[in-house]
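tmp note - Carboxymuconolactone decarboxylase
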Amino acid sequence: MSQGTEHGAPHRPGLAEHTDAARRVLLTPDHPGALPPALRIEAAARAADRTGQPGLAALYRALAPAATQAAAGPGDPALVTAVQDFTDAVTLDPAGTGPAALRTLTAHGLDTPAVVALAQICAFVAYEARVVSGLAVLAGGPAAEPAAVTGTRDAITGTRDAITGTRDAAATRDADASPSAPRAADFTLDQLTWRPRVPAVDADALTDAQRAVLDAHTTLSATSPYYRTLLHDPAALDHRTHVYNAVMYGRGGLPRAERELATLLVSRANGCVYCASVHGRKYAQLSRDEAAALRVLHEGADALAGDARGEALARFTRAQTLTPPAATGADVAALRTAGLDEAELTDLVHAVALFGWANRLMLVLGDVHPARKLDAGIPRTDARESCSGTSGRAAQAGDA
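out:
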């Protein structure tokens, strides 16, 4: 199931290996804690089914026999139902998955590390399923299995009906955005902060494993509440950071500005105000055009009208952000006509998929708030600031 060299990304060393490793530590960890492997695998398979990838779901379920030898099944039926409901919500409507969903999990026996692990599983599958989907479309296949699409549409309807407090913003958000996506006016290039909904790891009480992950990545900081939340599962954070850095910072391939444009569009569609703010600023910096970033932030794909390459990129990005993904051969043809080569197309697939992962973690595990004033000397846009890679002074300011 490698998503790197074997599936068309030979110019991104380590991507396949760390994708495989992330899957392994999330679904069949050596120490699963309160979330047994059988339940982890079933959650992953359910998310893959909901994302129109029954083949990927079958591959996940094939891991179950070995896993269930170490844990005797998923256990409490009420917990199973809670995990299924949470998986559906995170997969289908991450912006509408509120704190109550996390409280339900804890009420049924999951501790904070298990809740974070389950969120990581759902978010990881959003990534891997879109990589499989996107590479299939590049090869001339469908983005999702037709039967799975029908089932997912029914599930989306049920999830929308179950979510309370969802604003009616049909006139002010994209028609194919997340069901609970914010209004266009909610998005901003201002610097924001993020606060976790679950207790973060104590920075003064890190385990050796947690400290080792921080020491291994200059883009991680113990001062960030986001990273300290993800440090409840240090192995998953480690491999996720490798994947993120390969996709977003690797040399060559799709220009960095266009990777940021794609992630801005994905974040906007998914309703992640925090990620849209961060990557809107990065796009403004790399493109040297803050006005263009603001237009994309507020208008989405419409802001790119008249730019053939930008329009094609936005069209593919929007289609692949849907659940299930819905890009077509015509979308790929438009990208090729606009000049994207195979390496650039593969990078685009991975960047779009990656923010299915990043947005879901941000949306589900915490909340966005107005920024505190930055310390003197901190630039407005740090070159390494992102939803997964922040270094230096910006990390100390609390950006995730």
